[in-house]
Amino acid sequence: MTATEATEHAIAPVPTGTEPQPAPGATPPQAPPLIAKAAAELVGTAALVAVVVGSGIQATELTKDVGLQLLANSTATVFGLGVLIVLLGPVSGAHFNPAVTLAEWFTARRGGAGVTLREAAVYVPAQIVGAIAGAILADAMFGQPLVKWSTHDRSAGHLLLGEVVATAGLILLIFGLARTDRLRFAPVAVASYIGAAYWFTSSTSFANPAVTIGRAFTDTFAGIAPGSVAGFIAMQLVGAVVGLALVALIFTPGRKAAE
């Protein structure tokens, strides 16, 4: 318990017996165990990648128009991501993204709220395993080779710049919402941002190291060549740093009136 929490606890009103009570037989609210959080991150990231890869395969089978393919892919991703955040957010925070997890650990390390080092060390591998599993699952559902390295090269410089922009914007959005106490809007806001970034960034907004790794395992519309993965991840981490710097610059707490 932090000093702030302790203070709030100390000044909390004494129960009067009229407060809402849990339903008979209901489990009292408590922090989920780490294994549940890890499972939520693994399953959530797997589902996210399955949505991205599966909708990409479906789109290419339905139309040859690349614009319509991207529209179908981005639309499915928006709805899928929003649902996953609503469902799993109360358990693990619904990161599904090592860049978000590491940024949250860094802010917590500097006195903010967030995951511990132990939690981050569990989240990141779970996200990567989940991403790979999601790509394999999507391929299996559409009769594709379960593992076939992507041949979709994405190593051009303008694509790498797109990943810096996409990731910086995502981090700015998430931590900006947290700083302004509006995380309740995260399901809609984050999903909407990713949907928009599909179109306004040259890289179609991977913005996620785990998803990037997973998408290397499928030679389909959403794939990325293994040789392009390291560059994308490096730029995503750069973008995360830029995003945190923007959060610190824009959402600096104001001085108290008394000061």
Question: Please, could you describe this protein's structure?
Answer:
The protein is mainly α and 259 residues long. It is 66% helix and 0% strand. The chain contains 9 helices and no strands. The protein has helices spanning 3-11, 34-62, 66-92, 98-109, 117-141, 157-179, 186-200, 209-215, 226-250. α2 (34-62) crosses α8 (209-215), α3 runs antiparallel to α7 and α4 (98-109) packs across α6. The protein is globular and about 50 Å long. The model is unreliable at 1-28 and 255-259 (pLDDT under 50).
Count the E strands: 0
State the end-to-end CA separation: 28 Å
Kindly report the average pLDDT value: 88
Number of helices: 9
- How would you classify the helix and strand content by structural class? mainly alpha
> What are the secondary-structure elements, in order, as H or E?
HHHHHHHHH
Helix content bin:
55-70%
Percent of residues in beta strands? Answer: under 5%
